[in-house]
Design goal:
Length: 124
């Protein structure tokens, strides 16, 4: 059993930065942890993912060069550093853990555990 708690969201002006945290309880060894976002009326999209053994990362094209995901194994926490934020980055952000099956790690249906979500709002 894994529980995920996001923190660090809020409101920022375009061009600004925010860092989201996803604190995990339970066994998170050798699993994918991903960040998804969902704006009203839009499907939930994956933006970044990290494999907890070795720290291998993947990013959606829309955030490459602006977002960075990382982990602190001692704190069992995964981070999403978001720089050069744009209004279109505004959404509810979720962390998800334990990808099961095959295919893209940005497939939300394949994640077993989810956090409660946290709002990010970027104003122009």
């Amino acid at each position: 059993q894994v529980q995920l708690v996001e923190s660090g969201g809020g409101s920022v002006q375009a061009g600004g930065s925010l860092r989201l945290s996803c604190a995990a309880s339970g066994d998170t060894n050798r699993i994918w942890v991903a960040w998804f976002r969902q704006a009203p009326g839009i499907e939930r999209d994956g933006v970044a993912a990290i494999f907890t053994e070795g720290g291998y990362t993947l990013y959606a094209d829309s955030v490459k060069g602006r977002f960075t995901t990382s982990q602190d194994n001692a704190k069992n926490t995964v981070y999403l550093q978001m720089n050069s934020l744009k209004p279109e980055d505004s959404a509810m952000y979720y962390c998800a853990a334990d990808f099961r099956g095959r295919g893209s790690v940005f497939t939300p249906e394949k994640y077993y555990y989810w956090g409660q979500g946290i709002q990010v709002t970027v104003s122009s």
